[in-house]
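## Example record

The block below lists the input lines for one assembly entry, exactly as stored, with component labels intact.
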Amino acid sequence: MARARRNLRVPEKEGSNIGRLIDRTQPISFTFNGRAMKGFAGDTVASALIANDVRRLTSSFKYHRPRGVLGIGSDDPNAIVEIGVGDRRTPNLNATQVLLAPDMRIASQNVWPSPRLDLGGLIGRLKPLMPPSFQYKTFKWPVPTWRVYEKALRTLGGIGTVPGAADPDRYEHIHVDADVLIVGGGLAGIAAAEAASAADLKVVLVEETHRLGGIADGYDGRVDGKPLLDWVQNKVRNLAASRDVHILTNAGVAGLYDHGLAIIHERLDPNASVEPENAPRERIWKLRTKAVILATGAHEKPLVFPDNDRPGIMLATAARLYLRRYGVLPGQRVVIATTGDEGYRTAADLAAGGAEIVRVVDLRLDPDGSLFHIMKARGTPLAVGSAPVGTTKGKKGELAGVTIANRLTLDGPALRSHADADTLLVSGGWGPAPFLAGHLGARLVFDEELGGFRPGELPGGLFVAGAANGKFHAAEVLEDGWRAGSIAVEHVLGSSWSSVVPSHSIEVTADDDAEPVGMLPDVATAAERATAFVDLQNDVTIGDLDIAIREGYSAPEHLKRYTTLGQGVDQGKLAVANAAMVMAKALPNATPAHTTFRPPWTPITFGAIAGTRRGVLFKPVRETPLTALTSDALREPLGLWRPPAVFPRPGESREEAVRREARSVRNGVGLFDATLGVKIAVQGPDAAQFLDRMSATNLADLEVGRSRFALFLDNDGFVLEDAVIARAENDRFIVSAGIGRADNLCAWFERWRQREWPDLNLFITDETERWGQLLLAGPRVPELLAAASSDIDIAGFETDSYAEGEFMGTTARALATRYTATPEVEIAVPAGHLPSLWEQITEAGKPLGITHFGTDTLHRLRLEGGAFDLDHETDGSVTPYDLGLGDLVKVDKPFFVGKEGLERPGMTRSSRRHLVGVLTEDPSFVPPPGAHLVLDPDHAPPRRVVGHVTSSGYSPTLRRSLALALISAGERHIGDRVFIVSSGEGLPAIISSTAFFSNGEPT
Amino acid sequence: MNRLSWTDSLAAPRSLATRSDLSVAIIEDPGVLDLQFPDGEYIWRTANAALDVELPRDPWQTVWIDGMRYVWTGPGRWRVIGPRHRIGDLIDRLRHADHRGAVTELTGALSCFRIAGSGAAELLMRVCPLALGPINRDEARGTSISGVPALIVREASSVGSWLILPARSYAEYVGLSLVEAARTPERLRLFEPASPPPV
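Predicted C-alpha cells for the full assembly:
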C-alpha cells in the first residue's frame, strides 16, 4: 500500500522568515510521474516536490538505488528530472534550479519500466559482480552475445532520453564586451561588483539562480544596523540602478577560455515576452572581459558512511534554506549529523518550523561554539563525538532510521545506538568551490585543515573571492569581495587604484571552523566501505576507490576514469573534496589532487549550443547568381557551395541524366555555371616574375591574349593546385583555378609575396565574386555565339585564347579552355549580369538543343578526356610526374615553389604510383572510386595492393566504363592485366593510358 | 540577343525585417573599386588628386563624399563603395594618374545590407563578434557576420545605422541570419538601470 503523502509545507506565520520566496496567493498545479500535486509561485520544482512529501525522485545511474533531493543548488547530484512533454520535453534538468510553472509535467529518470516499479533496482543486487571498470572486462564473450548485451546496455544506460520531436523553441547567441566578469551573486560577488563599478568599469555580474544574495538568507544578524537580508537588498538595488553594472540571473558560466572569453548560459521564459513565439528560450552570452572574479561560494560537504545515499538524507544548510525560502520541512523526525556549527543552526530553524529534532550528532569531540551551547541549553538531544555509521530503510528504500556510534570506539554493539527518523541532515563543513579556475588550467591546492581545495596559483586576470577563497564569515566575505574587485580594477587599468575598503558593522554569528572529519573511520569493513558513497551521481563508493588503488590506479585522472568518479553531469561537485580525503588516507605519500574540470560547468542544452545555427542557418551556404534559375537541378555540396550536379528530367535517374547531358555536350552545346571557379588578378611590374616563381610551369614566355595550364606545388613538391593562367596585359594576369579555392590560393600567394618577396612590385586581388561565369562546351558553340553582339572575336578563338572586351553590352572576358575535351569557351560578365546572360543564351540555344549540365557531367566529360581532378586524383602526396604531367615542370628554372622538394630522390623513383587509365574487361562494370587493385586476386590475404581507383564512370561517348587509378610504376605497366577488388571478388581490367578519347574518337 | 540587364542580390532593394526600433534592408548591389597603391606620400597625393578626395590613412577610417564612401582596408589599400554608375568615372580618372598601383573593379562582388534604428547595435551583437563600442561613426571593420567574412561600416546617422557588406555569394545566408536576429522582441538593455532581481 502506498505511503500516505504528508503535507510538509509549514503554515504561514506572521513575522517569521519562513517561506519568504513563495507567494501563497498563487497556487500552481503540476504533476509528478502522473500524480497531481500543488505548489506555489516562487517554488522550485525541488521545493514543490519536497512539500508534497516526494522522497524518491529518481534512481541512481549504475545501481538504480532510490535517490532524493540532497541539496538546493546546481551541486545536487540526485535531483535530475525530466520536465515537459512532446517537443518541449527536456531531460536532465536539475529540479533545484527550475522554477515551478503552471501545468508542469515532471517525471523521474533512469527508472525502468516505470517510476513505480524500477526493475533496474535488481541491478543493485548484482553489485559485487560490478566492480569499477567491470564494463571493460566483461561483455566480450561469447562474441555473438554482444548483440544481446548491447541492447540491454542501451536500454539501461545513460540518464534521460532524448525527445523524439524537433525543438520548436528559439535560442540565440550574443557577443558582449565588458571590463570585469563576476561569477556568483552572493555577498562576495556583490562586494566585488561594488568595488569594480566604483572605478567606472563595466561589470557583468552573473548568478546561476534567479536571485542574488547567495545563502545570506540562511543566516540571521545585522550589517550596518540593518537586518542582513535588508542590507543585501539595498546593495542589489544600488547595483541594478548603476549604468556600470549589468546583472544576469538564471545564468551560469558554462566555461572560461583564453583571452578573456566566458560562455554564459542564460535561461529565459518566452512566455514572459510580448511575442512568445519570437522570444528565445535560452541565450548564450559570449562575453569578452579583461578580468574575471570567481565568487562561486562553497559547497557543503556530505558525510561518507554506509548507506549514506538514501532518500531523506539532505545537506543541513540546504534543509534550512528550503524552510526559510519555500516554507518546506525536509521531514518530521530529523537527525542532524554535523562537523561544525551549521548543524545547530539548522536544528534551531527546523525546530521552530515544527520538526522534531531527534538528535544532533556532532562528530567533533569537543564542540564549544555558541550555537552548540544554545541548543544544548534548549534540551536538544545531542551526541557529541559520534558519527552516523549506517542507515535503515523503509519499504520503498527511503530513510527509516540512523545508526549512530561513538567515534572513539566504533566496534562493539554497546556503543551504537539507533534513531528512528525520516530525515537525516548532514553537514561535513564547507569546501570552497573555485573550480571554474580549472577551465583556465589552474590547479587547486588541497587544504587539509579545511578538507577542501583552495585556489593555488591563478592565471593573470583571474581572481577568487569569498567562500570560494576559503572565507566563510560574513565580515571576511565582504572584505574579500571588495579586495578582489579592487585588484581586478588595477589589473584592468594597468595601474594602482586606491580605494577605501568600506567598513561595516557586522553582527552575524561567526561559526567555529568545521572539522574535516566526514570520512568513514578506518575500522569500517569492506561491506561497509562498499556502500559508503563518495560520488552519488555515478554510484562510486569508498570500496570502489579501494579497488582502483589496489589495482594500481593512484593518480586522480586514472581513478576518475577507472571508477567514473566525477564523470557525471555534476562533475563530482560534492564528491571532489571527499574523494581527495579518501585518496589522501589511502596514499599518504601522494599530494591530494583533483581531476580536470571542463566546460560546460553545468549541463546546457544542445539548442543553446546551436543557437540560430539550425535549418537553413546551420552553416553558411554560398550561392551563385544563378541559384534561382537552376532550381530544377539536383545539387551536391562542394565546400560551402551547392552547385548543380545534374539536371534530371522527370523520370530520369541521376546516372541517366549525366549520360544524356554528356552526349548533348559532345554532339551539340552544353551550358555550365562556372561561377564558382577562382579568379585572381595578379598585376604589377613584377607580376610575371612572381607567377613564374610560384608555378612549376614556365610562364615567362606567356603572350598577352594567351593562357596556359599550370601547376602550383607545395614546399614539398607535391601538387597543390592546378590553374589556367591568362595574360590579359603585359603586367596583368588572371589566375583561374578550381572551384571554391579562392581563399586558399590567395592566402598562398600573399604568404609568399609578403614573407619571401616583399620587394616585388605586384598586387593580388581576389576577383572571384565580381564575375559570373558560364562555360559553353560542344561543337556548336561558335554557332550559338554568332548571334551575340560582342567585340571579342570568340569565333576566332584558338585553344588557350584569352580576350577582354564587351559582350552583349557589358564588360566581359572570354577564355578558350579544354576542360571537357570538346571546343569550349568560358565567358565571364559582372555577377549581376549573369542571370540575364544565362537566360538569353539558353533561349538562343534552344534550336541547337542546348543542355544545362552540372558538375557530375563535367567530371564525366573530363574523365573521358583523361583529365585529372585535383580532389580525386591528388591527396597532397602526388607529384606532377605521378600525374604524367612532367612536361609542365620547367626543371631548369632557377627557382619555383616546391622545386627543392621535387628534386628529392624519392620523388622520381620508378616505383611511385602513376596516374593511368583502367579499362575493365566487363565494359558495363564501373569500379567504385577507392577500390583496391591487386595483381593476384587469389593470393591469400594479405594481398599486395598495387594501386587504387581514383575516379570512374560510364562513358556515354565510348559506351563503356572508364577509370583512372594511381598504380605503382603504372606507366611501365600499360597493357598489363590487373584486378579490381570489389565485393570480395577480383574483377579483371587492363591498365591503359589516360588518353581515352581525343577529337571525338577513342584512342 | 539583347543587352544584359542587372539582377541585384536578393531582389534588392527591399526591406527584410522591421521593428519599432529597427529596420533591416538590402540595398542595391553597390559599385565597388579595389585600390592598392604602393606606400608613399607621393602616390597617396596623386591618387587623392585624381579622385578629388583625401583617402583616409588611419586604419578603418572612411570618408563619405558625394555619395561615395572611401574605406581604408589595409596599408595602401582602399575600397570605394557607391552607386554602380559612378564607378566607371573613378576608373577613368585613375587610369591616367601615376599611382603605380592596381585599380580593380569589383562591382557585383559585394551585396549590401543596412540595419538602422536604436536596436541596430543589439542586432549586430547577435551576429558579429566584434566589440562595437570602439567603432565610431564613419568607421569600418573587417569582421564576420554569422561566421561569414564581411565589411561593416558605421554610418554617420544620429540614429544607429550600419552597412554590412558580405561577398555576394553569402547574401542569402547573411540576409536570413539578420532576419533571424531581428526576431527577438525585447531589448537587452545592457548597462542600463533596471529593476533589481529578487534577493
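The CA atoms of residues 697 and 710 of chain A lie 5 Å apart. Chain A touches chain B through 83 residues (CB under 8 Å).
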